[in-house]
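BUG-249 | component: ligand-complex export | severity: low

The export step for zinc ion jobs runs without errors, but we want the raw record kept on the ticket for reference. Input record follows.
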Amino acid sequence: MAITASTEEQQLLLDVQAVDTKILQAGHKRNNVPEIATVQELEVALGSLDMKIVAVSTEVSDLSVVQEKAEADVEVVRSRAARDKERLDGGSITNSKELESLQSEIESLSRRQATLEDEELEVMQQLESAQNALDAFNTEREPLAAALEAAIASRDSQIAECNAEIDKLTAQRNDMVSDLPSDLVKLYDKVRDDLGGVGAALLTRGACQGCRIALDSSEIQRIRNLGADVVVRCEECQRILVRTAESGL
Ligand SMILES: [Zn+2]
């Protein structure tokens, strides 16, 4: 059975369609806030930088342990040599063999100390360069983290703005729809779901504004002969075709 609705109700359906189109546009705008992509890019960049920071932090901490160990090794040899030197200078050892052995130990300790100090120096240089790399990464991180924070704030506020707009429009649309016959609304919602968001279109200058296809003359003639309250559908796209004074019938 054909659905019927008064001319005013059919006109109101076009107004509902206009609001529904705005809701779709606000949803599209919300899903395409540029900062959504910016946040993703910055998160990737920050994630990769954080991995570098973790790696170089581990290196700094490992090298610090090695450096402390090297320093302790040098200290052991240094104090042993100092003790030997004290004994030698003290004059308490008179036995020439003992003196010779002590002097030889001091010389050997001195060579050992030089080697250990070279090793310590090398570790210190490695540590310094790792520390510099870590400092550079941390310096690089600061503006990146700030940019991410700003992008998130901007993204969220724009999304919230779109959501508020959608809520407002949805309330408006529900209010309008409550004045319409339920079978008309049901048909409209179904067609709208099936056809990309447009369920009702104006018939103007002999063409459906939903699919932009001109109706042939016999179809126009048929519509002309229908009662004003008969709900017409476009033969081409199946949308509800609303007739108004602009329809040129
Ligand atoms: Zn159409």
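Assignee comment: Attached the raw record above. The mean pLDDT is 95.
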